[in-house]
């Protein structure tokens, strides 16, 4: 028996047991409402999507070409339209996730107004956005299924059993738009208890995967800005533990933790951890500090800190703000230690924040990590903070230079110039950019590729294009040619914005509840009918 028929039978039997009190209830309508609301709580979503992610991780381990991707979003509608588009263009949502960017929450969702990515926004904005995203994804399910139900009714009305059977098969095999969200908890918004409390709220809202970084919570910076300050491993492990306990408490045993390290670009620490014995984690962390030897008390100024490393007294160099510096050129070594330590203490995936998209650089660090943890794999930020065009043109330039090619036609420092757009170098750079995700997953252990804040930029770009024309000579034609006609030509369902917002769903429900007396919005006078 199909899921549709099975549910219908269950509701029919339940109604018949009520002694006539439920005779106004149509079991088929109840069946449709049940199927349109597959996930009843955020925890249902978290458990389901955690299973999806775990299966995807296992498939990637077996075949690195089966990597996953996501795009960052700052509103439920944006997330919904992404997944509708993925399903329409690619036929399935498999291997496609959503990313919740703390940067975009700060810049676009804070009650304080636009903020930099420094954990100043309200922490409650993060679980609120998770809940909003899943509300819109669930509405996408309800809307799409509603259209299938109408197809089924139309086929039945015509007596077309073949069409009716096909419609019911599509209903029973319907693939949900609900996909995993990788959710950014920044540096945890406080101590480990604060991290646990926020993680719990995020999981209750539906998060199956939480990404946390090893920066100091009250001095957190965007990963692509200066001034980043890391915490000792013991402090970060405590927060990993806090997130894991939150998952376990709420029954999401498959919950995924992404441990992000900013050590590659972070040259500062706020805290010198206490080492219990040579070689322990605190000792290894302190060994990267920029220190000078202490020969006598004369080498120590008032208020200085002195530590003993390898039997030698040394003074860590401290800035006027009390922060300590790491030695230059220790970033990659610290990244490798961070990643190994995180994986050995409960993290499932890694995030290495880099300053450029370079497969060789990433692969070099991953190879070192995999010497200790063979199945180590990354979530990688395909960041809009990189100048992708310039980076890859320079990478091609450098490769050609090593090959001894004639580069007299190119100025490496000016490769972003439009005059190079149609050159062989630019064409090859675009090929390398196109292949970056495939190559990165094959050679550098990247399981998941994401763009953190693409829709921040697409919203700005599309709005600029419309404003240029609409407020200029084109007037209304700017909207018609640039937006509405494109929606029609490309088959975007959103051109019928009333339907997208739920008017047909509402009409269906009114008919369920009120029968023939329902006052519905979708009649002849509805201008949405102009779009066919």
| Radius of gyration from CA coordinates | 28 Å
Sum up the overall morphology in one term.
globular
* Overall pLDDT score: 92
Proportion in helices:
40-55%
Distance between the ends: 35 Å
Number of helices: 19
How do the strands of the widest beta sheet line up side by side?
12-6-4-3-2-1-14-13
Secondary structure class reads: alpha/beta
Stretches with pLDDT under 50, minimum 5 residues: none
- Describe the largest sheet: 8 strands, parallel
Strand percentage lies at: 5-15%
- Annotation, overall tally of beta strands: 14
Give short descriptive properties of this protein.
532 residues; three-stranded mixed sheet; 11% strand; alpha/beta; eight-stranded parallel sheet; Pyrv/PenolPyrv_kinase-like_dom
Explain briefly what this protein structure is.
The protein has 532 residues and is of the alpha/beta class.
Write the layout of secondary structure elements.
Elements: H1 3-16, H2 27-35, H3 42-62, E1 68-73, H4 76-90, E2 96-100, H5 102-108, H6 125-158, H7 161-172, E3 181-184, H8 192-205, E4 209-213, E5 229-230, H9 233-249, E6 256-261, E7 268-269, H10 281-287, E8 291-293, E9 307-309, E10 312-316, E11 324-325, H11 331-343, E12 349-352, H12 359-370, E13 378-381, H13 388-403, H14 424-434, H15 436-443, E14 446-451, H16 454-470, H17 476-490, H18 497-500, H19 503-514
Parallel strand pairs: 1-2, 1-14, 2-3, 3-4, 4-6, 5-7, 6-12, 13-14
Antiparallel strand pairs: 7-11, 8-10, 9-10
């Amino acid at each position: 028996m199909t899921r549709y028929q099975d549910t219908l039978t269950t509701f029919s039997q339940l109604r018949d047991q009520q002694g006539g009190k439920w005779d106004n209830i149509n079991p088929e309508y109840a069946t449709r409402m049940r199927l349109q609301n597959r996930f009843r709580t955020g925890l249902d979503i978290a458990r389901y999507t955690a299973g999806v992610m775990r299966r995807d991780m296992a498939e990637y381990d077996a075949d690195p070409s089966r990597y996953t991707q996501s795009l960052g979003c700052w509103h439920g509608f944006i997330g919904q339209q992404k997944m509708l588009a993925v399903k329409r263009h690619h036929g399935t949502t498999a291997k496609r996730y959503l990313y919740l960017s703390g940067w975009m929450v700060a810049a676009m969702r804070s009650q304080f107004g636009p903020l930099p990515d420094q954990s100043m926004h309200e922490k409650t904005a993060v679980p609120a956005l998770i809940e909003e995203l899943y509300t819109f994804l669930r509405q996408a399910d309800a809307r799409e299924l509603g259209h299938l139900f109408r197809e089924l009714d139309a086929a039945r009305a015509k007596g077309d059993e073949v069409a009716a059977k096909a419609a019911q098969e599509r209903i029973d095999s319907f693939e949900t738009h609900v996909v995993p969200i990788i959710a950014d908890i920044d540096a945890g918004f406080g101590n480990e208890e604060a991290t646990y409390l926020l993680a719990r709220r995020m999981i209750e809202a539906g998060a199956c995967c939480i990404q946390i970084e090893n920066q100091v919570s009250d001095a957190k910076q965007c990963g692509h800005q200066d001034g980043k300050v890391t915490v000792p491993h013991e402090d970060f492990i405590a927060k990993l533990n806090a997130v894991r306990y939150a998952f376990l408490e709420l029954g999401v045993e498959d919950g995924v933790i992404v441990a992000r390290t900013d050590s590659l670009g972070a040259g500062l620490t706020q805290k010198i951890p206490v080492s219990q014995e040579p070689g322990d984690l605190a000792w290894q962390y302190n060994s990267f500090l920029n220190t000078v030897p202490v020969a006598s008390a004369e080498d120590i100024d008032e208020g200085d800190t002195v530590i003993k490393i390898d039997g030698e007294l040394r003074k860590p160099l401290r800035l006027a703000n009390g922060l300590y510096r790491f030695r230059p050129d220790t970033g990659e070594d610290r990244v490798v230690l961070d990643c190994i330590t995180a994986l050995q203490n409960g993290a499932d995936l890694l995030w290495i924040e880099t300053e450029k998209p370079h497969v060789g650089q990433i692969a070099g660090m991953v190879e070192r990590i995999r010497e200790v943890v063979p199945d180590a794999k990354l979530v990688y930020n395909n960041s809009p903070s990189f100048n992708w065009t310039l980076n890859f043109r320079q990478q091609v330039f450098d490769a050609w230079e090593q090959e001894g090619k004639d580069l007299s036609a190119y100025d490496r420092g000016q490769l972003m110039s439009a005059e190079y757009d149609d050159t062989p170098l630019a064409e090859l750079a675009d090929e390398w950019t196109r292949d970056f995700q495939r190559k990165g997953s094959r050679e550098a252990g990247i399981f998941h590729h994401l763009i953190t804040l693409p829709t921040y930029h697409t919203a700005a770009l599309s709005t600029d294009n419309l404003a240029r024309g609409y407020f200029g000579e084109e007037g209304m034609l700017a909207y018609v040619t640039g937006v509405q006609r494109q929606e029609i030509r490309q088959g975007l369902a959103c051109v019928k914005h009333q339907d997208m917002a739920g008017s047909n769903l509402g009409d269906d429900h009114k008919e369920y509840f009120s029968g023939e007396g329902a006052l519905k919005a979708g009649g002849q006078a509805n201008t949405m009918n102009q779009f066919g």
